[in-house]
Every structure is written in structure tokens, then in C-alpha cells.
Amino acid sequence: MTVGVVGDSVMISALPGLQAEADRRGWLFVNGAHRACPVGYEPLFLLDGTPAPGQCDGIKSLHFQLMVARPDVIVWLDINSRWARKDSAGTLLQPGTQAWKDELYPEWTMVLDRFLAAGARVVVVMPPLRSQQAAGCKGVTSAARCREVQSQDAVIREATPEWFASVADRQGIYMIEVDSLLCPNGYPCPTRISGITVRETGYDQTHFTAAGAAWFAPHLFDRVLAALNVEPPPGQTG
After folding, report:
1. Burial, 85: exposed, middle or buried (Cβ in 10 Å; 0-12, 13-18, 19+)?
2. Is 178 helix (H, G, I), strand (E, B) or coil?
3. Which of 75, 154, 161, 202 is deepest in the core (most CB within 10 A)?
4. For the residues 137-159, what does the mean pLDDT come to?
5. Could you give the C-alpha distances from 232 to 17, 40, 101, 172, 236, in angstroms and in order?
6. Pairing relation of β-strands 85-86 and 173-176?
7. What confidence score (pLDDT) does residue 206 get?
8. φ, ψ of residue 96 in degrees (nearest 5)
9. Is-contact 200 186, C-beta < 8 A?
10. How far apart are the first and last CA of the chain?
């Protein structure tokens, strides 16, 4: 089986584990993710209208190379689309607003249709909760960062299933969740799981550690296979 991934730096941080696990299972693994870039191609902006971090001009080319590999399945995890966008008139659209959704959803759908037309099945990962601090951020250290992460989580976690519902009638698209792995009881997400520091702590709270990526990869792939109703060969489960 050939498996591709798309997404931003969260997916990038998981790559070492995903590549190693794909090798262990005898799969061909193809990366289509790029640090600081969304799955779509339109530029993103900070809340004040300045360009968001990241040079994403090469995303279309990266996706083209992914599709050339003819992946059987593409795993999609897009947290970076949480940033502001602009409409065709150049008006800044704040994350979570209906106008913002009206720009984002067609963009996601266009990319999805390209992947489906290339013969891939697409498994969308619900962006997981990330904050390792209490809900609402009251009385926590680094409260500003806590509020930032939890606000971003709220925006992208509302948008993703809403968009998915609008395209769920297409053949070959699936959704899975990983909250039950990474944050089973809601905020605060655990710092350590099974004795492993799975995600970076402190200011980050988002990206996988090397040990975390190795722990997460087999679980993610098992959930992908379950969504596709494919049984892994004996000895190839997490």
C-alpha cells in the first residue's frame, strides 16, 4: 500500500514515526506536508492582516508529486488553516466567521477533489485538542499562550467537521479522531501518555516529540485502516 500525508508542521513533527511505521508495515510512504502551511493554496494572515509565517508557494508542486506517486490513501491533518484569510476583494476575514468559512471550505474542497480524482481515498483527521492547561486558562501560567492555543483549537475543530459534512457524500472520504489517544478527558491534555512525553511542552504544546511520533504513528495508521475497513496483516498493528 502507498500512503501519503498532507498537513502542516504538526504532521511534519510526526513524520519520523510515520515513515518508520510505514516501513515496518511494508508500505510506501510519501510526504505531502509542509511546515507552517495549510492543505490549501491561498495565503494566510495574522489577525492584524500581516502575512502568516511560512513560505507556501511550493505546496501545489508538493501535492503534485504526491499524486504522481498514486497513493492508495492520503491522511489529511490541517491545523494551520486556523489563520485569517482574505476574500477576492482583499478584505481580511477573521477566523471562525461565516465569511472566513465561505472562503476556506471551497478551497479545501478543491484540494480534496484533486486527491480523489487521482484515485486516492482521503482520511481527514479531526484536529486534536492540544492545550496542556485547564479549559478557559484561568489561573494558569502563560495564560496568553494558553488562550491562543485553545482559541485556535475551537476555530479549526468547528470548521473541520462542518466542512466534512458538506463533502461526506463523495465516495472515498473518511474522518477519524485522535482525541481519545491524545486528550481523552479534554483540557488539560496529558503531558505524558504511557510514560512518554508525546507532545512538546511549555510554549509549544502542539508538535510531537520524536518518542511521541513513534508512539502515535501505529495508532494513527490503525485508525486509518479501521476507517477504510481494512484489516492489517497479523503483527502489523500498534
Report:
1. buried
2. coil
3. 75
4. 95
5. 18, 31, 37, 19, 6
6. unpaired
7. 95
8. 90, -15
9. no
10. 17
Q: What is the pLDDT of residue 55?
A: 75
Distances from the Cα of 233 to the Cα of 74, 133, 201, 224, 236, angstroms: 20, 39, 35, 14, 6
Quick one: which H or E segment has residue 153?
Answer: helix 143-167
Nearest Cα neighbor of 125 from 3, 6, 2 is: 6
Strands annotated E in 95-218: 121-125, 173-176, 192-193, 196-197
* Domains of the chain by start residue, with CATH: 2-227 (3.40.50.1110)
Question: What CA–CA distance (Å, rounded) separates 131 from 204?
Answer: 9
Exposed, middle or buried: residue 125 (CB in 10 Å: 0-12, 13-18, 19+)?
buried
Tell me the backbone φ, ψ of residue 186, rounded to 5 degrees: 75, -175
3, β-bridge pairs: 29, 73
Q: Which pTM does this prediction carry?
A: 0.94
What is the rounded average pLDDT of the residues 4-24? Answer: 98
- Which residue reads 502575512 in cell numbers? 51
> Could you say which DSSP state residue 52 is in?
P
Q: Give the total residue count for the chain.
A: 238
